[in-house]
Design a protein that fits this description.
alpha+beta, 5-stranded antiparallel beta sheet, 4 helices, 10 strands, about 20% helix, about 30% strand, globular, binds 2-acetamido-2-deoxy-beta-D-glucopyranose, manganese, metal-binding
Amino acid sequence: MLPILLLLLQLSLLSPSSAADFCVGDPSLPTSPLGTFSCKKESAVTATDFIFSGSLATPGNVSNLLKAAVSPAFSSQFPGLNGLGLSLARLDIDVDGVIPLHTHPAASELLLVTQGSILAGFISTSNAVYCETLNQGDLMVFPQGLLHFQVACGDSPAVALASFSSPSPGLQITSIALFGNSLPSELVEKVTFLDDAQVKKLKKVLGGTG
Ligand SMILES: *[C@@H]1O[C@H](CO)[C@@H](O)[C@H](O)[C@H]1NC(C)=O
């Protein structure tokens, strides 16, 4: 009996449960180079650290160029997600609205349409296009790092929930990267094959200079 008890004791000491169960982020401490937060002291952690009572019940403000809004619950807004490998956002896309071509460098995405219809697609690194109209209840996955977009279809606004395989998925919007920057227009024309008028027009719309 005694050897078995000793064995069980040893196993419990070795088991992963002796590592920290969680690492609620402390935004007042410096982040790691990859953007993860340092842990809040466990004695200071409470149930509210694991709850996001932000704005996900409320439609985002779609009075903008995109006619769309993303309301994130990423580790910056919800530090309880820190280190846990997942996060969520609410998408509101008004009639004619668009979440333009973009990537999340650090995460795959699952999109669940909860209202209306969304034309969604992604482009693989071999330039294959995977594009479909999603209706309420449909779920689409966008593999990590690939360019993708969402457009509202029909004559009613669309709502969706997007979950990510990272608490901090990252975001790069292609048009803003190309035209919202300070590179000289001639250089942007050179590296995109676009003409001068188009580049200058998009720089103006998207806040670029140069
Ligand atoms: C929505 O955003 C617009 C443009 O930034 C702003 O003028 C307006 O006040 C906002 N509406 C609400 C309800 O916050």
